[in-house]
Specification:
Number of strands: 19
Distance between the termini: 50 Å
Number of helices: 19
Bound molecules: adenosine-5'-diphosphate, magnesium ion
Radius of gyration: 34 Å
Protein name: Heat shock protein 90B
Largest sheet: 9 strands, mixed
Structural class: alpha+beta
GO molecular function, one term: ATP hydrolysis activity
Organism: Chlamydomonas reinhardtii (Chlamydomonas smithii)
Mean pLDDT: 88
Keywords: ATP-binding, Chaperone, Cytoplasm, Nucleotide-binding, Signal, Stress response
Family: Belongs to the heat shock protein 90 family.
Strand content: 15-25%
Strand order of the largest sheet: 1-6-5-4-7-3-2-8-9
Shape: elongated
Low-confidence stretches: 232-251
Length: about 625
């Protein structure tokens, strides 16, 4: 199409499309998943708007919230049409090419690193995957607020927009015409499409129809003899196929014999419904297979790897809701990046089966926004605006229960890991959790450990629960990670504090003069090396009645001094009084709080420590670097 207004794609989109259209990526199927997902999103949007204004749906066919897919085998064009919200001219220009999304550059970067094309949906650029199979695409769209427009592009850096004067009026919604590439002709067959649509549409909450061609028998006028022969053949066949029904068949054919009718086979097109679009979360958990849960996960999360774990439950009481919650195996690419600025797309909120929003911070706290899945509530009101819904007290209850459930799921994985470790040490095997269960928490911690730490900072209510989930290295555990409970279990008699030191690496911390004496006396010291750790410790003052003690701070007290040692301390203090006084005077007074004789060192003659209430040197370093 060279008619219409021409627009240049945003530069990164051009690069992205160039990569996609020339991609040798073999799994081209994903384009269909992405387009169906967009159609479903568009339907969700119009259905949501119709809650407060019924007239928005229009009437006749237009009001059918459905997706239809068909094929022109001759011209090798594949059509996907939804009756969703549609796009105005402005939407087409912005959404399909000119507005830069943060995901575009992030996805390009991933692809350069050899990332999987499959991830495209997660980066918010799924539409362009259509160029895996097409060399020319037209998007015809009709939004209630505008005329019908056509967007078209051959992925050559530009697209055209023109008012549509050639296609049938859509009423409302979007029709995508996919001109299949030479090497993607396999998508031009009904069988292939059927298989794919079934695979990707199983958990889409709108009916999806595929136009199929079937052989049907239609009555014709024909000479009698020919008819008889025809029928005999059929009879024989049926007898072979289903013996049990033989009697019935006989009766039927007798009837037919009485008034013989000639039939002829003819090809007839029909709309075949490919999904049952019943919400999976309404089913009983015992009726849903692991495979179905994982398939549903992929449908709601845009992830393509299985979830690490999930929970399907129903909350009862004042606030009723059903929910399926998933913890992904891999953290979303941008989870920790600009953590405080981003929207939180993870949990989808439904009210009585109607999709409301997938960005409700009232539903789940930020530190758990990696959790995917759905919450469907019967208690929340349906016909109110999103703003009003956010004020609903019931949402608070839902959030509280969801958080509990998620922390429960994580706790279970953590407990299985601890149990496995203990059993391995003891050489026990009876009732041991499966290998998968034993390894789950390590995977979780690797991907989401920082989320747990952020939770300790942000979620005062669950701080203790979250602290239980912490994993770290210590002076006694070598390469193994350990827990606070295990640390406490190993504490020396009379030890009151949990000792830790933070720094840039395990080696640095272990070799630090700050921990010399502690180690020499046999105390275990936690080695924190993540920049977040010291922030976390700023919020976690104690655990299980044990105070945390930062080894780099002035008030570090070793608890196992006996009377003799105490006396010796006093003597030393007297003896070096002049020296400490002199020292304080020599060094700039404003920068020094005091000089003390101390027995916290073993071989190092002196160290500079931080005041009890000041930032540690490590913290100063982090703050200066603005690392977080
Ligand atoms: P995402 O779906 O993650 O936003 P896509 O690249 O798949 O990213 O789609 C880009 C945008 O184009 C969508 O956000 C939506 O605004 C618009 N869009 C795509 N397909 C449709 C459609 N069938 N109906 C309405 N809008 C659509
Ligand atoms: Mg999409």
């Amino acid at each position: 199409r060279d008619s219409g207004e021409q627009f240049a794609f945003q530069a990164e989109v051009t690069r992205l499309m160039d990569i996609i259209i020339h991609s040798l990526y073999s799994n081209k199927d994903i384009f269909l998943r992405e387009l169906i997902s967009n159609a479903s999103d568009a339907l969700d949007k119009i259905r949501f708007l119709s809650l407060t204004d019924k007239s928005i749906l229009g009437d006749g066919d237009t009001s059918n919230l459905e997706i239809k897919i068909w094929l022109d085998p001759e011209s090798k064009v594949l059509y996907i049409r939804d009756r969703g919200i549609g796009m105005t001219k402005d939407d087409l220009i912005k959404n399909l090419g000119t507005i830069a999304k943060s995901g575009t550059s992030a996805f390009l970067e991933q692809m350069q690193k050899g990332g999987d094309m499959n991830l495209i949906g997660q980066f918010g650029v799924g539409f362009y995957s259509v160029y895996l199979v097409a060399d020319y695409v037209e998007v015809v769209s009709k939004h209630n607020d505008d005329a019908q427009y056509i967007w078209s592009s051959t992925a050559d850096g530009s697209f055209a927009i023109s008012e549509d004067t050639e296609n049938e009026p859509l009423g409302r919604g979007t029709l995508i015409k996919i001109h299949l590439k030479e090497e993607a002709q396999e998508y031009g067959t009904e069988a292939k499409l059927k298989e794919l649509v079934q695979r990707y549409s199983e958990f889409i909450n709108f009916p999806i129809y595929l136009q199929t061609e079937k052989e049907v028998e239609v009555p014709v006028e024909e000479p009698e003899e020919a008819v008889k022969e025809d029928e005999k053949e059929e009879e024989g066949k049926e007898d072979e196929e289903e013996e049990e029904g033989a009697e019935d068949d006989e009766e039927e054919s007798k009837e037919e014999e009485e008034k013989p009718k000639a039939t002829r086979k003819e090809k007839k097109k029909d709309w075949e419904l490919l999904n049952d679009n019943k919400a999976i979360w309404l089913r009983k958990p015992s009726d849903v297979t692991e495979e179905e849960y994982q398939k549903f996960y992929k449908a709601v999360s845009k992830d393509y790897t299985d979830a690490l774990t999930y929970s399907h439950f129903r909350a009862e009481g004042d606030v009723e809701f059903r929910s399926i919650l998933y913890i992904p195996s891999v953290s979303p690419y941008d989870f920790y990046d600009k953590y405080y600025e981003k929207a939180q797309h993870g949990l989808k909120l439904y009210v009585r089966r109607v999709f409301i929003s997938d960005d409700m911070k009232e539903l789940i706290p930020r530190y758990l926004s990696f959790v995917k899945g759905i919450v469907d509530s019967d208690t929340l009101p349906l016909n109110v605006s999103r703003e009003m819904l956010q004020q609903e007290a019931a949402l608070k209850t839902i959030k509280k229960k969801v958080v509990r459930k998620v922390l429960d799921m994580i706790r279970k994985m953590a407990e299985a890991e601890v149990k496995c470790k203990e059993m391995e040490e003891k050489g026990e095997t009876e009732d041991k959790p499966s290998e998968k269960e034993c390894g789950q928490y390590a995977k979780f911690w690797e991907q989401f450990g920082r989320a747990i730490k952020l939770g300790i900072i942000e979620d005062t209510t669950n701080r203790n629960r979250l602290a239980k989930l912490l994993r770290f290295h210590t002076s006694k555990t070598g390469d193994q990670l350990t827990t606070l409970d295990e640390y406490i279990g190993r504490m020396k008699e009379g030890q009151k504090s949990i000792y830790y030191l933070a720094g840039t690496s395990k080696e640095e911390v272990a070799g630090s003069p700050f921990v010399e004496q502690l180690l020499r006396k046999g105390y275990e010291v936690i080695y924190f090396t993540d920049v977040l750790d010291e922030y976390v410790m700023g919020h976690l003052l104690d655990y299980d009645d044990k105070k945390f003690s930062n080894a780099s701070k002035e008030d570090l007290k070793l608890t196992d001094k006996d009377e003799v040692e105490k006396k010796k301390d006093k003597e030393l203090k007297e003896q070096f009084k002049d020296l400490t006084k002199w020292w304080k005077k020599v060094v700039d007074d404003s920068k020094l709080q005091g000089v003390k004789v101390s027995n916290r060192l073993a071989t190092t003659p002196c160290i500079v420590v931080t005041g009890k209430y000041g930032n540690s040197a490590n913290m100063e370093r982090i703050m200066r670097a603005q690392a977080f």
